Amino acid sequence: MAQDKLTQLKTMTTVVADTGDIEAIRRFQPTDATTNPSLILQAAQQEERRARLAELARHSTDISDAVDSVAVEIGCEISDLVPGYVSTEVSARLSFDTEATLARARSLIERYERRGVGRERILIKIASTWEGISAAQQLEREGIRTNLTLLFSFTQAQACADAGVTLISPFVGRILDWYKAHDPHADFSGDNDPGVQSVKRIYEHYKGHGYKTVVMGASFRNRGEIEALAGCDRLTISPKLLAELAEDQDVLPRQLSPAGDAETSPPEPYDESEFRWEMNEDAMATEKLAEGIRKFMEDQRKLEALLGELRR
Protein backbone atom coordinates (compact mmCIF):
# COMPACT_ATOMS: atom_id res chain seq x y z
CA MET A 1 0.00 0.00 0.00
CA ALA A 2 1.37 3.41 -0.99
CA GLN A 3 2.37 5.75 1.82
CA ASP A 4 1.84 9.48 1.76
CA LYS A 5 4.87 11.74 1.83
CA LEU A 6 4.36 12.77 5.46
CA THR A 7 4.48 9.12 6.54
CA GLN A 8 7.58 8.57 4.39
CA LEU A 9 9.24 11.68 5.80
CA LYS A 10 8.71 10.43 9.35
CA THR A 11 10.81 7.32 8.55
CA MET A 12 13.91 9.45 7.88
CA THR A 13 13.37 12.76 9.72
CA THR A 14 11.84 13.71 13.06
CA VAL A 15 8.78 15.78 12.14
CA VAL A 16 8.04 18.77 14.35
CA ALA A 17 4.82 20.80 14.27
CA ASP A 18 5.47 24.51 13.83
CA THR A 19 2.28 25.65 15.52
CA GLY A 20 0.47 26.42 18.75
CA ASP A 21 -2.72 24.92 17.31
CA ILE A 22 -3.65 22.01 19.56
CA GLU A 23 -6.04 20.47 17.02
CA ALA A 24 -3.40 20.49 14.29
CA ILE A 25 -0.97 18.72 16.61
CA ARG A 26 -3.59 16.08 17.38
CA ARG A 27 -4.23 15.56 13.66
CA PHE A 28 -0.64 15.24 12.43
CA GLN A 29 0.91 13.54 15.48
CA PRO A 30 4.41 15.05 15.30
CA THR A 31 7.22 13.93 17.58
CA ASP A 32 7.99 17.47 18.79
CA ALA A 33 6.33 20.86 18.63
CA THR A 34 7.80 24.34 18.52
CA THR A 35 6.23 27.73 19.13
CA ASN A 36 7.30 31.35 18.89
CA PRO A 37 5.70 34.68 19.87
CA SER A 38 3.75 34.84 16.59
CA LEU A 39 2.29 31.35 17.09
CA ILE A 40 1.53 31.98 20.77
CA LEU A 41 -0.32 35.15 19.74
CA GLN A 42 -2.41 33.17 17.25
CA ALA A 43 -3.28 30.59 19.91
CA ALA A 44 -4.06 33.29 22.48
CA GLN A 45 -6.57 34.92 20.13
CA GLN A 46 -8.75 31.80 20.04
CA GLU A 47 -12.08 32.63 21.67
CA GLU A 48 -12.21 29.41 23.68
CA ARG A 49 -9.02 30.44 25.49
CA ARG A 50 -10.28 33.84 26.66
CA ALA A 51 -11.47 32.87 30.13
CA ARG A 52 -8.32 30.93 30.98
CA LEU A 53 -6.06 33.68 29.65
CA ALA A 54 -7.92 36.26 31.70
CA GLU A 55 -7.35 34.13 34.80
CA LEU A 56 -3.64 33.80 34.06
CA ALA A 57 -3.30 37.52 33.34
CA ARG A 58 -5.02 38.59 36.56
CA HIS A 59 -2.84 36.31 38.67
CA SER A 60 0.41 37.53 37.09
CA THR A 61 2.68 40.09 38.71
CA ASP A 62 3.19 42.04 35.47
CA ILE A 63 2.79 41.69 31.71
CA SER A 64 6.09 39.83 31.21
CA ASP A 65 4.99 37.35 33.85
CA ALA A 66 1.63 37.00 32.08
CA VAL A 67 3.28 36.36 28.71
CA ASP A 68 5.44 33.59 30.16
CA SER A 69 2.44 32.10 31.97
CA VAL A 70 0.55 31.88 28.67
CA ALA A 71 3.53 30.38 26.83
CA VAL A 72 3.99 27.70 29.50
CA GLU A 73 0.23 27.03 29.64
CA ILE A 74 0.16 26.30 25.91
CA GLY A 75 3.45 24.42 26.12
CA CYS A 76 2.04 22.14 28.83
CA GLU A 77 -1.00 21.37 26.68
CA ILE A 78 1.28 20.51 23.79
CA SER A 79 3.50 18.33 26.00
CA ASP A 80 0.51 16.05 26.61
CA LEU A 81 0.18 15.47 22.86
CA VAL A 82 3.77 14.95 21.71
CA PRO A 83 6.30 12.44 23.06
CA GLY A 84 9.34 14.64 22.45
CA TYR A 85 10.44 18.23 22.90
CA VAL A 86 8.34 21.35 23.28
CA SER A 87 10.16 24.57 22.38
CA THR A 88 9.30 27.76 24.28
CA GLU A 89 10.88 31.09 23.40
CA VAL A 90 12.60 33.63 25.59
CA SER A 91 11.37 37.15 24.83
CA ALA A 92 13.02 38.62 21.74
CA ARG A 93 13.38 41.80 23.80
CA LEU A 94 16.26 40.04 25.58
CA SER A 95 18.14 39.05 22.42
CA PHE A 96 21.16 41.22 23.28
CA ASP A 97 21.24 40.60 27.04
CA THR A 98 22.95 37.38 28.14
CA GLU A 99 22.18 37.67 31.86
CA ALA A 100 18.51 38.53 31.33
CA THR A 101 18.17 35.63 28.89
CA LEU A 102 19.65 33.27 31.49
CA ALA A 103 17.24 34.48 34.16
CA ARG A 104 14.20 34.18 31.90
CA ALA A 105 15.19 30.72 30.67
CA ARG A 106 15.63 29.43 34.23
CA SER A 107 12.27 30.93 35.16
CA LEU A 108 10.53 29.18 32.24
CA ILE A 109 12.04 25.84 33.24
CA GLU A 110 10.91 26.35 36.85
CA ARG A 111 7.38 27.09 35.63
CA TYR A 112 7.31 23.89 33.60
CA GLU A 113 8.69 21.82 36.45
CA ARG A 114 6.02 23.19 38.82
CA ARG A 115 3.46 21.98 36.28
CA GLY A 116 5.03 18.51 36.21
CA VAL A 117 6.84 18.84 32.88
CA GLY A 118 10.52 17.97 33.30
CA ARG A 119 13.31 20.06 31.81
CA GLU A 120 14.32 17.12 29.61
CA ARG A 121 11.10 17.78 27.62
CA ILE A 122 11.70 21.48 27.04
CA LEU A 123 13.90 23.37 24.59
CA ILE A 124 14.39 27.03 25.44
CA LYS A 125 14.34 29.00 22.18
CA ILE A 126 16.82 31.85 21.98
CA ALA A 127 17.75 34.15 19.09
CA SER A 128 21.13 33.32 17.53
CA THR A 129 22.87 36.55 18.52
CA TRP A 130 26.29 36.44 20.17
CA GLU A 131 24.59 37.17 23.50
CA GLY A 132 21.97 34.48 22.92
CA ILE A 133 24.53 31.85 21.99
CA SER A 134 26.60 32.76 25.06
CA ALA A 135 23.52 32.31 27.26
CA ALA A 136 22.75 28.98 25.61
CA GLN A 137 26.25 27.70 26.32
CA GLN A 138 25.77 28.38 30.03
CA LEU A 139 22.26 26.92 30.08
CA GLU A 140 23.48 23.69 28.47
CA ARG A 141 26.07 23.38 31.26
CA GLU A 142 23.19 23.62 33.74
CA GLY A 143 21.22 20.85 32.04
CA ILE A 144 18.77 23.20 30.31
CA ARG A 145 18.47 22.33 26.64
CA THR A 146 18.31 25.05 24.02
CA ASN A 147 16.99 25.68 20.51
CA LEU A 148 18.82 28.52 18.76
CA THR A 149 16.40 30.24 16.41
CA LEU A 150 16.52 33.04 13.83
CA LEU A 151 19.56 31.34 12.35
CA PHE A 152 20.46 32.43 8.82
CA SER A 153 24.19 31.86 8.40
CA PHE A 154 26.98 29.33 8.61
CA THR A 155 28.66 31.66 11.09
CA GLN A 156 25.74 31.40 13.50
CA ALA A 157 25.61 27.63 13.01
CA GLN A 158 29.33 27.24 13.75
CA ALA A 159 29.09 29.37 16.90
CA CYS A 160 26.14 27.28 18.09
CA ALA A 161 28.10 24.06 17.55
CA ASP A 162 31.04 25.58 19.43
CA ALA A 163 28.68 26.35 22.32
CA GLY A 164 27.30 22.81 22.40
CA VAL A 165 23.65 23.79 21.99
CA THR A 166 21.12 20.99 21.68
CA LEU A 167 19.45 22.14 18.47
CA ILE A 168 19.51 24.88 15.85
CA SER A 169 16.66 26.12 13.66
CA PRO A 170 18.04 27.46 10.35
CA PHE A 171 15.33 29.46 8.57
CA VAL A 172 14.97 28.20 5.01
CA GLY A 173 12.11 30.31 3.70
CA ARG A 174 13.27 33.64 5.08
CA ILE A 175 16.65 33.15 3.39
CA LEU A 176 14.81 32.54 0.12
CA ASP A 177 12.69 35.68 0.72
CA TRP A 178 15.83 37.83 0.94
CA TYR A 179 17.36 36.49 -2.25
CA LYS A 180 14.09 36.81 -4.15
CA ALA A 181 13.75 40.43 -3.05
CA HIS A 182 17.29 41.21 -4.22
CA ASP A 183 17.14 39.23 -7.49
CA PRO A 184 13.47 38.74 -8.43
CA HIS A 185 14.19 37.21 -11.85
CA ALA A 186 16.60 34.49 -10.71
CA ASP A 187 15.68 30.81 -10.67
CA PHE A 188 15.59 29.69 -7.03
CA SER A 189 13.67 26.46 -7.59
CA GLY A 190 14.80 23.02 -6.44
CA ASP A 191 18.49 22.77 -5.62
CA ASN A 192 18.93 26.47 -6.46
CA ASP A 193 17.00 27.47 -3.33
CA PRO A 194 19.57 29.33 -1.16
CA GLY A 195 17.75 28.38 2.06
CA VAL A 196 17.95 24.69 1.17
CA GLN A 197 21.62 25.10 0.22
CA SER A 198 22.34 26.74 3.59
CA VAL A 199 20.81 23.90 5.60
CA LYS A 200 22.56 21.25 3.52
CA ARG A 201 25.92 22.94 4.09
CA ILE A 202 25.34 23.16 7.85
CA TYR A 203 24.12 19.55 8.05
CA GLU A 204 27.11 18.18 6.14
CA HIS A 205 29.54 20.26 8.21
CA TYR A 206 28.04 19.09 11.50
CA LYS A 207 28.05 15.44 10.48
CA GLY A 208 31.53 15.68 9.00
CA HIS A 209 32.97 17.05 12.24
CA GLY A 210 30.99 14.98 14.71
CA TYR A 211 29.01 17.83 16.28
CA LYS A 212 26.09 16.59 18.37
CA THR A 213 23.93 19.67 17.77
CA VAL A 214 20.70 18.74 15.97
CA VAL A 215 19.86 20.51 12.70
CA MET A 216 16.15 21.35 12.39
CA GLY A 217 15.17 23.13 9.17
CA ALA A 218 12.45 25.73 9.75
CA SER A 219 10.42 28.50 8.08
CA PHE A 220 9.40 26.74 4.88
CA ARG A 221 7.72 28.57 2.02
CA ASN A 222 6.73 25.53 0.00
CA ARG A 223 6.61 21.76 0.10
CA GLY A 224 9.55 21.48 -2.31
CA GLU A 225 11.91 22.93 0.29
CA ILE A 226 10.86 20.23 2.76
CA GLU A 227 11.25 17.46 0.21
CA ALA A 228 14.73 18.76 -0.71
CA LEU A 229 15.77 18.32 2.95
CA ALA A 230 14.26 14.88 3.55
CA GLY A 231 16.63 13.07 5.90
CA CYS A 232 17.63 16.16 7.88
CA ASP A 233 17.68 15.50 11.64
CA ARG A 234 14.43 17.40 12.21
CA LEU A 235 12.11 19.61 10.18
CA THR A 236 9.55 21.92 11.80
CA ILE A 237 6.57 22.30 9.48
CA SER A 238 3.39 24.37 9.47
CA PRO A 239 -0.03 22.61 9.51
CA LYS A 240 -0.71 23.76 5.92
CA LEU A 241 2.41 22.08 4.58
CA LEU A 242 1.93 19.03 6.79
CA ALA A 243 -1.50 18.63 5.17
CA GLU A 244 -0.02 18.92 1.67
CA LEU A 245 2.54 16.21 2.44
CA ALA A 246 -0.17 13.97 3.93
CA GLU A 247 -2.21 14.23 0.72
CA ASP A 248 0.65 13.35 -1.67
CA GLN A 249 1.15 9.64 -2.42
CA ASP A 250 4.28 9.99 -4.59
CA VAL A 251 7.64 8.54 -3.55
CA LEU A 252 9.78 10.80 -1.34
CA PRO A 253 13.52 10.17 -1.93
CA ARG A 254 15.98 10.73 0.91
CA GLN A 255 18.23 13.74 0.24
CA LEU A 256 20.42 13.98 3.37
CA SER A 257 22.22 11.19 5.17
CA PRO A 258 24.83 11.21 7.95
CA ALA A 259 28.38 10.85 6.66
CA GLY A 260 30.61 7.97 7.67
CA ASP A 261 33.39 8.58 10.17
CA ALA A 262 33.52 12.18 11.38
CA GLU A 263 36.65 14.24 10.82
CA THR A 264 38.77 14.56 13.94
CA SER A 265 39.71 18.25 13.82
CA PRO A 266 36.82 20.74 13.95
CA PRO A 267 37.70 24.37 13.25
CA GLU A 268 38.78 26.68 16.04
CA PRO A 269 35.81 28.24 17.87
CA TYR A 270 34.85 31.81 17.01
CA ASP A 271 35.61 34.53 19.49
CA GLU A 272 33.21 37.47 19.77
CA SER A 273 35.06 39.80 17.40
CA GLU A 274 35.34 37.11 14.72
CA PHE A 275 31.65 36.27 15.04
CA ARG A 276 30.57 39.89 14.75
CA TRP A 277 32.87 40.49 11.78
CA GLU A 278 31.60 37.45 9.88
CA MET A 279 28.00 38.49 10.55
CA ASN A 280 28.79 42.02 9.37
CA GLU A 281 30.12 40.56 6.12
CA ASP A 282 26.85 38.64 5.55
CA ALA A 283 24.18 41.22 4.65
CA MET A 284 21.40 38.63 4.34
CA ALA A 285 22.00 37.11 7.77
CA THR A 286 22.42 40.46 9.48
CA GLU A 287 19.27 41.90 7.94
CA LYS A 288 17.09 38.82 8.47
CA LEU A 289 18.22 38.39 12.08
CA ALA A 290 17.34 41.99 12.90
CA GLU A 291 14.04 41.76 11.02
CA GLY A 292 13.14 38.49 12.76
CA ILE A 293 13.74 39.95 16.21
CA ARG A 294 11.60 42.98 15.33
CA LYS A 295 8.81 40.77 13.98
CA PHE A 296 8.72 38.55 17.06
CA MET A 297 8.64 41.65 19.27
CA GLU A 298 5.82 43.14 17.19
CA ASP A 299 3.71 40.06 17.87
CA GLN A 300 4.78 39.91 21.51
CA ARG A 301 3.63 43.51 21.99
CA LYS A 302 0.24 42.55 20.53
CA LEU A 303 0.08 39.66 23.00
CA GLU A 304 1.08 41.99 25.84
CA ALA A 305 -1.70 44.41 24.82
CA LEU A 306 -4.22 41.57 24.74
CA LEU A 307 -3.21 40.33 28.18
CA GLY A 308 -3.16 43.89 29.50
CA GLU A 309 -6.81 44.25 28.55
CA LEU A 310 -7.65 40.96 30.24
CA ARG A 311 -5.92 42.09 33.45
CA ARG A 312 -8.33 44.99 33.90
UniProtKB/TrEMBL annotation:
Catalytic activity annotation: D-sedoheptulose 7-phosphate + D-glyceraldehyde 3-phosphate = D-erythrose 4-phosphate + beta-D-fructose 6-phosphate
Main location: cytoplasm
Protein species of origin: Litchfieldella qijiaojingensis
Record keywords: Cytoplasm, Pentose shunt, Schiff base, Transferase
Pathway: Carbohydrate degradation; pentose phosphate pathway; D-glyceraldehyde 3-phosphate and beta-D-fructose 6-phosphate from D-ribose 5-phosphate and D-xylulose 5-phosphate (non-oxidative stage): step 2/3
Protein name according to UniProt: Transaldolase
Keyword Aminoacyl-tRNA synthetase: no
EC supergroup of this enzyme: transferase
Chain intervals for the UniProt region annotation (Disordered): 255-274
Pfam families: TAL_FSA
Record family assignment: Belongs to the transaldolase family. Type 1 subfamily.
Active site: K125 (schiff-base intermediate with substrate)
EC number: 2.2.1.2
Function of the molecule: Transaldolase is important for the balance of metabolites in the pentose-phosphate pathway.
Subcellular location: Cytoplasm
